[in-house]
Each structure stands twice: as structure tokens, then as C-alpha cells.
Amino acid sequence: MAWYTHRYVLAGLLAGFAPAALATNGYFAHGYGARGKALAGATTALAQDAIVAAINPAGLAYVGDRLDLEFELFSPHREYRVNGGGMLATGSVESDSEYFPIPTLGWSYRLDDSQTVGLAMYGNGGMNTDYKPLVNGNGLFAGAPGTFGAGRTGIDMAQAFIVGTYARSFDHGRYALGISPIFAAQTFKARGLSTFGAFGFSADPDHLSDNGRDYSFGAGFRIGGLAELLPGLRLGASYKSRVFMSKFDRYAGLFAQDGGFDIPDSFNVGLSWDVNAALTANFDVEHIRYSEIKSVGNPFRGNLLGYADGRGFGWNDMTIYKFGAQWKPDPLWTLRGGVSYGQQPIEGSEVLFNILAPGVQEWHLTGGFSRALGQRVELSFAVMYSPQKTVSGPNPLSPGQSIDLSMSQFSLQFAWSRRF
């Protein structure tokens, strides 16, 4: 009985905290919190708010007693184009649903001079596409509406995280370690894919598409450390474990391993350097192991959808390089800017299935500021622009036909913070 109660609680939190279409570095966010996002996510070695636990739990040892309430408006523009006659109708199709609200929360409390606990709630990422059921004029699905001839087409995946953190500093604050148990919830639905079952591509066609919204729950952990190597020069590192999730039973015929969709592990390493009293420069590297998750990393050319070694989206691992700088010209204002780059995870040979999840972004350009309102309250703002990226390749089920996947993104984030 308690388990079902926890499921309903987590499902409610998922509805409140998970983004509906956050796909920046694959489907991981480019940063966490307004301050972190304004620095392009280069915050592994720089602790400024309670949301730092989402990237390096050791940083919580340095932020004091505080509450951070944040809201982001995220806008992705997704499109695919089919060239040449064949299975799919030729032409361009844009995805609907281009604006998504995303809340974030962080809280920290110092137990004593060296120990701090905290809580963060945030969305790590998700995938969303929503293609209108336009009638195909040519191709295999001629006369039938929808990308794959089965009506309105797309998927909607969202992830929410509840992270508790314990951090401890040592040697008068020169070093810190932190650990965060991670509790995660996912929601997913798919539609317009039933023809893959009709043509024999799924081991379980009844659990492939148009089965409504399903939920998945699981847990993992993140550990991190922070060290002051020299006065003003800090090194940070963290590791997030694989988050083992329950299966999407309603979509056991779509995802490998009968509906498995774990969240991949990742590594972060960063340096932060106080160039002078006003200027701080930050550099991070993040590595995400998408290929370890069979439903994400398995290539589309393979066994039937739903099998342990079944077809997937064919995503590669990602390594992202992030640079951010902030300047504090006076006690009231802090100005920030950043840029990040990571080679997108989709090969040209995998474009067909990734019409559903075109996570092709590579560059992120960011900026923002904070403005103190008295001694305890601060307002922060961040903006992100990710220019259009296009990945092209052949349709593996239709020789002579090619597909272009494109996306661009824009977001605004606002934060209200209070120190206690």
C-alpha cells in the first residue's frame, strides 16, 4: 500500500517539476539553475546556490542557508524534411508545442560550520515531438494521415528528480565532499507508430504505440568533491550513477528490454579561477554515456523493437565542453556569460527513428545576471540560445530517400533567492 502511495506522490511531483521538452545535450540540460545556465553549465567547481547539488553535491557546503525558487520558459523548434520518393512523404514537417514552463527548487541548511544538508527538485531532461496528421500524398503511406501513416505522431517523455544532499567541508573549508541520493520519476507516451507493428518491426505490437501515458520510477546517486588547489583556484568533480528505473509496461513493444529506459551515468570535472576580486572564469567537461542504455544506444538496424537487443535510437555518448565567466562590478550586480559545445549523439544512419527525438543540438550560447535586493534577497535571470543544427542521412527502410533533422532552441529563466 505504501508503494502505491509513493507512486502517486512522485507522479504529482513529476507533473509539477518535469520539463515536457528539454533536449539540449541529448536530453540532459545544459546547466542547472539560472546562475549555472547563464554560465553554460560550467559550475562543477563554482557553488552559488542550493541547486548546485544537481551537478556537484560538494558545492552545497559553501552556499549557506538559502532557498532558490526558479522558473524557466523553454522553446524548442523541431523539424524534419524528407527528400526523394519512397516510404515517407516528401517535404518538411514542423513539430507543434513549442513553449514549455519548467520550475526548479533548491534549499540548503547548515547543521554546523562544516556540515550542510539540502533538497533540490528539477527536471533533467525529456523529449517531445508532436507532428500534425498531414495526409501523405505519396510514398508507402499514401493517403494515410501522419508521418508513419498512423495519425498524429510523436513522443512525450519527461523526467523529474528529487535530490537530497549531505555535504561536509574539511581543513577550514579548503576541501568538501558531498553525496546525493537521487529519486527519479519518468512519464512517457507515444502515438502514430502502430504501423511499425503492422509491418513486423515489434515483438509486442499491442504495447508499441497509442497506449496513453505511462510512468516509471527509480533511484541512483551522485557523489562529488571540491578542492581549493591554490588561493582562488578550485577543482571540482562529480559522478552520477546510472539511475535504474522501472519499465514502461505500456510500451514494452517499443523500448528494448521490454520497456526499459534507465537514465545513463555521467561524469563532470571543472575548474574555477578567481582572476581578480571581480572576475571568475570557469571551465567544465561533462561526459554522458547514452550508449549504455539499450533503448537509447542500440542502432535501429537490429532485432525487433522490445527485445533485449532490440532496435533503438542509436545514440552515441556525448562529451560537452563548457566555458563561463562572471563579473561583479559592484556589490549589487553580477553579470554572466558562457558557451558550450558537444558533438550531437545521432549518426546520419539513425535519422529515421530520431524523427521522434531529434536531440541534435551542439552549441549553446548563454548570458544572464543577478541583482541583489538588500542583504538577503536576490533576483537572477538567464537566457540561452542554441542555433539550428541539422543532421542528414538515408532512410534505412527506403533506398534513395533521405531525411534531414533540424532543431534550434531558446530559453529564459528567472530565479528568486533568499538567504537566511
TrEMBL record:
Residues 1-23 form the signal peptide. It is found in: Cell outer membrane. Keywords: Cell outer membrane, Membrane, Signal, Transmembrane, Transmembrane beta strand. It comes from the Bacteria. GO terms for cellular component: cell outer membrane. Coiled coil: none annotated. It holds the Pfam family Toluene_X. InterPro entries: OMPP1/FadL/TodX. It is a multi-pass membrane protein. One of its GO terms (molecular function) is long-chain fatty acid transporting porin activity. SUPFAM superfamilies: Porins. Belongs to the OmpP1/FadL family. This is Long-chain fatty acid transporter. It comes from Methylomonas koyamae. The lineage of its organism: Bacteria, Pseudomonadati, Pseudomonadota, Gammaproteobacteria, Methylococcales.
